[in-house]
Amino acid sequence: MSVRDTITAYAEKQYPVYRQLALEIHARPEVSNYEFFACEHLSEQLKKEGFTVAVDVAGHRTGFTGVYKAAKPGPVLVFLAEYDALVGLGHGCGHNLFGPTSLLAASALKQVIDEVGGEIRVYGTPGEEGGENGSAKGSFVREGFLRDVDAALCVHPGDCHEASSKNIACLPVDIEFWGKSAHAAAAPEQGINALDALILTYNGINALRQHVTPDVRIHGIVTSGGDAPNIVPAYAAAKFYFRASTVPKLEVLYRRIEKIVEGAALMTGAKGRMQPYQNRIDNMVPTPSFDAVYGRELALLGETLLLPDEGCGVGSSDVGNISQVVPTIQPTICITEGPTPWHTEESKAAAKSEKGLASILLGAKALALTALDLIEDPALLAGIKADHAEALARQ
Fold it and tell me: What angle do CA 190, 195, 199 make, to 5 degrees?
């Protein structure tokens, strides 16, 4: 049996295990920093597959790594795993499929890695949707987990098979003001209204929207505005997402909004502060030649990979942080019967449908065989690395 046949046969044999795992994770949705069930069951499955596993990594209690290194030298390839759910909705982004797909791909490739050489890693990265200690891939980069990696691979559930596309950088922030409470009727002059400062900031940000480029997105909510109408609010807070097509543009936007916060504090006498509450999400840097390898493997499995739109998407994902340091693919894999709005009850249902579950096997085969191509053809991997370096320089 060829190494390719060994990979596909093992994926088919183990698929029922990962199918069941995806259903169990779907039934127990967990948000960022609380993915205890998913982390435990995914990491335990990696142990069963013969990987050396560590949990609570890179500052994330629900993060994990799985590593298997062959005695024969070769490239270090990482399969990225996501498994968090959306607040209030559950698995409306299909991450219950994402993690099992990457694990099955890594486990199938492991069956031949001693023969072909190299090192396989699985990085379990919590909180892609953001939230408490969210966007863990930024931590994995910062803590050096990508320092010796040659390439990273994953697929994301979608409504079509589409190559990795651009997305935009994002910074989630807290904006807070502290004032001074007072009786709002008897002694308003003794108070400093933190809510006024926050409203001035909100309106200032709305005024700024007229003077930003089309790639910029700013959206937020007020999370605290006082306790009672007859008390001058001593504390007010909001959460905002700032987005822009690249990290440098995002940094400029952040500094502009900092000035708005400072101005509101000066106008009201309140003390203001703006700071990120999780990792910054970097923009995705696609490497089309890498996706082309995946596309060829997908075609051999009977499916067609579409090219993405040339424009920059308006969504964000911390896979961008990985793509800033190593060649990375995150194509979408179809789990629906047609165009479907994402982060909805419809996409949640698709994530446990038969078509959705079948995507685990398809995606695992395509990813594992793509990784095999990189191992067996050093010139191919070198070319992808060169293309990635050029893409970084152009952004």
Answer: 130
pLDDT for the residue numbered 309: 73
In 3-state terms, what secondary structure has residue 38?
Answer: helix
Give the span between the Cα atoms of 307 and 274, in whole angstroms: 39
Direct distance between the N- and C-terminal alpha carbons of the chain, in angstroms, rounded to an integer: 44
pTM for the model stands at: 0.93
pLDDT in tens, 67-120: 999 999 999 999 999 999 999 999 999 999 999 999 999 999 999 999 999 999
User: CA nearest 158: which of 198, 98, 218, 206?
Assistant: 98
Backbone angles phi, psi at 43, to 5 degrees: -70, -35
Parallel, antiparallel or unpaired: strands 156-158 and 332-334: parallel
Measure Cα distances from 223 to 13, 174, 178, 195, 240 in Å. 49, 10, 14, 11, 10
The alpha carbon of residue 124 and the mean position of all alpha carbons in its chain are separated, in whole angstroms, by 11
Q: What DSSP string runs through 206-255?
A: HHHGGGS-TT-EEEEEEEE--S-TTB--SEEEEEEEEEESSHHHHHHHHH
CA dist., res. 223 & res. 238, Å (int): 5
**78: buried, middle or exposed (CB in 10 Å: 19+, 13-18, 0-12)?**
buried
| DSSP state string for 127-185 | -TT--TT--THHHHHHTTTTTT--EEE--EEESS-B------EEEEEEEEEE-B--BTT
Residue type, 49: E
| pLDDT tens, position by position, 6-53 | 999 999 999 999 999 999 999 999 999 999 999 999 999 999 999 999
Q: For residue 156, which phi and psi values (nearest 5 degrees)?
A: -115, 135
pLDDT of the residue at 251: 97
| Cα Rg of the chain, angstroms | 23
Tell me how far apart the alpha carbons of residues 324 and 164 are, in angstroms, rounded to a whole number: 14
Query: Which residue, chain included where needed, has tokens 């960022």?
Result: 32
CA–CA separation, 348 vs 5, rounded Å? 33
